[in-house]
Write a structure and sequence with these properties.
The chain is α/β, with parallel strands linked by helices. Helices cover 25% and strands 33% of the residues.
């Protein structure tokens, strides 16, 4: 399988690559649009500011390529900022347009309560939505409800279509979407590669689900 980790100069590239190698999958780090066009699957990681990320993606000519890749139906995974970039827009340091693949906004944790610590850094639970979920038919297969995962973020996604939500997390009284599953897209706000054995299991489940 030809797996590409997209490099747009704001990513936790090597920890993601190491996680893939840990489960026996070779992944190539690349910012070359030709590599992405030839890929069987792709991962969009990310750490940093939304506006800077979109600027880099545009500069590298990757916006149209990523959109085309996802529309082709090939498996695509987003991590942290990589998940946020899939949405329509972000309010981080102004208003910035995203890839607009999933309708919704990226919002900041409310500062009305001055006791809230932002960013959220550390371990927190993920749990399924109560109405309906595809937990056991997703990369979360055999992951316990309310399992701890590692988060580092000040902003969270708010999808228009709540059916895209795979898991929720609560932080300082704010319940938000911590992962999505939409057609060929799987994305998490947390970092599976930093979430111990259970996080590595998520990578393994995702890879197993896309290997024919």
């Amino acid at each position: 399988m030809n797996l590409i980790i997209i490099d747009y100069q704001l990513s936790n590239l090597f920890s993601v690559k190491h996680a893939c190698e840990h489960i026996g999958v070779k992944a190539k780090i690349s910012s070359d649009e030709k590599d992405l066009e030839k890929a069987d699957a792709a991962i969009l990681p990310g750490v940093g500011a939304f506006g800077d990320a979109m600027k880099n993606l545009n500069k590298l000519g990757l916006v149209k390529v990523i959109n085309k890749f996802i529309k082709s139906g090939k498996p695509f995974m987003g991590i942290c900022l990589g998940m946020q970039l899939l949405f329509s827009e972000s309010e981080e340091f102004g208003r910035h347009k995203g890839l607009n693949i999933i309708k919704g906004k990226v919002k900041k944790f409310s500062l009305k309560n001055r006791g809230i610590k932002v960013p959220q850094i550390g371990w927190n639970h993920i749990y399924p939505i109560p109405e309906d979920n595809n937990w056991q038919n997703s990369p979360f297969k055999n992951i316990s409800f309310r399992e701890f995962m590692y988060f580092v973020h000040s902003y969270y996604v708010d999808p228009v279509d709540k059916k895209n939500i795979l898991s929720l997390t609560e932080y300082e009284g704010v319940e938000y979407c911590s992962s999505i599953l939409h057609k060929n897209i799987f994305a998490t706000q947390f970092h599976p590669e930093k979430s111990g054995l259970e996080g590595i299991k998520i990578y393994k489940n995702w890879i197993n689900s896309i290997i024919i």
